[in-house]
Amino acid sequence: QVQPVESGGGLVQPGGSLRLSCTAPGSTSNKCGMDWYRQATGKQREWFSSFSPDGSTSYADSVKGRFTIYKDKAKDTVYLQMNSLKPEDTAMYSCKTEGFLPCGSWGQGTQVTVSS
């Protein structure tokens, strides 16, 4: 399976920036989409951004204009540039490959904490 691995999380002050990475070897050749989800403590996991195999992107309203998703195909890595972070962005951020097998796996996640 195309297994994603996330990195780049950490502690950042409100208004700050972070860049998350999701590396999934084989995701480009297998035409996997790459989706980002997040789950805050006590809340349901929510989708908030996608990078499709055709290069199109989509965002939830909660992050539109602040987050940017892009992909380095040579590295099979999707990046999530997060700017103007807010305390409500605090969550465990997870990446998932989308599409037909061998796509369809979740990464283990990376924690993002926005706090002063």
Whole-number radius of gyration?
13 Å
The biggest sheet amounts to: 6 strands, mixed
Number of helices: 0
Count of beta strands: 10
- Span between N and C termini? 39 Å
| Proportion of helical residues | under 10%
H/E topology pattern = EEEEEEEEEE
Quaternary:
single chain
Rough shape? globular
- Strand percentage lies at over 45%
Write a structural description.
With 116 residues, this protein is an all-beta fold. The chain is 0% helix and 46% strand. The chain is built from no helices and ten strands. It has strands spanning 5-7, 10-12, 18-23, 33-39, 46-51, 57-59, 67-72, 77-82, 91-98, 110-114. The strands form two sheets. Strands 2-10-9-4-5-6 form a six-stranded mixed sheet, with no helix packed on it. A four-stranded antiparallel sheet has the order 1-3-8-7, with no helix packed on it. The protein is globular and about 40 Å long. The relative contact order is 0.34.
Task: From the structure above, extract its key features.
116 residues; mainly beta; six-stranded mixed sheet; four-stranded antiparallel sheet; 10 strands; 0% helix
